[in-house]
Amino acid sequence: MEFHIKDEALAEKGRLRIEWAAKSMPVLRSIKERFEKEKPLAGVRIAACLHVTTETAALAQTLQAGGAEVRVCASNPLSTQDDVAASLVVHDRIPVFAIKGEDKETYYKHIHAALAHRPHITMDDGADLVSTLHSERQDLLAHIVGGTEETTTGVIRLRSMAEGGVLRYPIIAVNDADTKHLFDNRYGTGQSTIDGIIRATNRLLAGSTFVVCGYGWCGRGVAMRAAGMGAKVVITEVDPLRALEAVMDGYQVMPMAHAAPLGDFFCTLTGDIHVIRREHFQAMKDGAIVCNSGHFNVELDLEGLEAMAVSKRTVRDFVVEYRLEDGRCIYVLGEGRLVNLAAAEGHPSSVMDMSFANQALCAEYMKNHASHLEKKVYGVPEAIDKEIARLKLASMGVAIDALTPEQEKYLNSWEMGT
Questions:
Q1: Is residue 151 annotated as involved in ligand binding?
Q2: According to the model, what pLDDT value does residue 418 have?
Q3: Which parts of the chain have pLDDT scores under 50?
Q4: Is 219 annotated as a binding residue?
Q5: Minimal CA–CA distance to 91: which of 28, 17, 41?
Q6: What pLDDT does 404 receive?
Q7: Does the annotation flag 53 for ligand binding?
Q8: Where do the domains of the chain lie?
Q9: Is 291 labeled as ligand-binding?
Q10: 183 and 354 in contact (C-beta within 8 Å)?
């Protein structure tokens, strides 16, 4: 079996961590139990370019239980948990191509390795796998029936491909499911980003000024958790509706040029390029801590910061100090990559339970329905979204009401008024 991981000897530690995560993933577990009986993915080859974490391992095991032949590679050079990768290889015989800290060349070699078994379905987180297929491995496109995409950044890229007429197969935007972005993006990103910042720095948030760049669902989550830790939260936005919502939620809203001199912590979550630029670094106070929790590190103008710095050194794990000419120091966490995965462990498994339940069920949906779909980006079918919510509530012991026949008739009629 082909694979490329850091160390097979880490496998037992990885297995224990995967088991720990799986205990908080009851929805995915129930899907796995059904998949084991029905084998709905028998004969399907899947290439999964995802963060190689304990939760991703549970997804890979579920797909394998359904009969799929799975290959896994990393969707970010710093997000791999090496013990998890080892466990998947050693205990589950799932080929993994991922090493935490891999360079860019190795990262793309791993993507090509994941594609080498000619997949029928792709699972992506950021669209690097799909982009590589369309630009460098078009010979493999004939085998592919469909795909899924996990995150906002990837959905943006894929919709651009679809609008440009270059997307060659249908893809489901898992990120757009209510059971994904309302929970994973908000509660998962919120908690795990703060976790990554605290693990990397051991700095106190209470009483600090915390600048959140972008008030989408991820930004909302980080702002909520930073405020809960006692920070004064400032939001920067380009969308007037989101900015207005942030104001109504009780946060200060201002342009980045005004926020730069005030912030003690800065976190970007926009999916766009150069959100914090050279002029912003120039205005920051000594000791400012800068990080990113959007998918790619391009949200920070690190080249501009490099050009400004007179020295650079690593002062803690995942903390690089840039000293400017006037003696001020700016600290960048996790090389500007996803701080929640670079410096911590990513989202809690209980929230990834819903996200990866979407992935598993959408893979099954793609196998059964792809031949009837156009080459564009689709939302998660409503039936799948509601079923996952129902299963999650049941696993939590939460019961809800059902409409009475009278209520159903009322909601479906127009005759009754005041």
A1: yes
A2: 73
A3: none
A4: yes
A5: 17
A6: 97
A7: yes
A8: 8-180+348-395, 187-342
A9: no
A10: yes
**293 and 265 in contact (C-beta within 8 Å)?**
no
End-to-end CA separation in angstroms for the chain: 70
Structure tokens at 228: 């809960």
Asked whether this chain's domains 8-180+348-395 and 187-342 adopt the same fold, the reply is: yes
Given strand 121-124, what is the order of strands in its sheet?
96-97, 69-74, 45-50, 121-124, 146-149, 171-173, 377-379
* 371 known member of a binding site: no
pLDDT at res. 416: 82
Q: Is 180 annotated as a binding residue?
A: yes
Confirm or deny that 295 is annotated as ligand binding.
yes
Q: Is 312 annotated as a binding residue?
A: no
- Residue 221 marked as a ligand binder: yes
Tokens at 233, concatenated: 């939260």
Task: Tell me whether residue 218 is annotated as binding.
Answer: yes
Q: Binding site annotation covers 202? A: no
pTM: 0.94
Does the annotation flag 164 for ligand binding? Answer: no
Task: Please check if 340 is assigned to a binding site.
Answer: yes
Burial (CB < 10 A; 0-12, 13-18, 19+), residue 369, is middle
pLDDT number for residue 218: 96
Yes or no: is domain 187-342 CATH 3.40.50.720? Answer: yes
193 is in an annotated binding site: no
150 annotated to a ligand binding site: yes
CA atoms within 13 A on the CB side of 189: 32
Of 340, 349, 18, residue with least CA distance to 192: 340
Residue 295 is predicted with a pLDDT of: 85
- Tens-digit pLDDT profile for residues 233-282: 999 999 999 999 999 999 999 999 999 999 999 999 999 999 999 999 99
What per-residue confidence (pLDDT) applies to 52?
A: 98
pLDDT of residue 77: 95
Q: Which fold has domain 8-180+348-395?
A: Rossmann fold (3.40.50)
Give the per-residue pLDDT at 417. Answer: 78
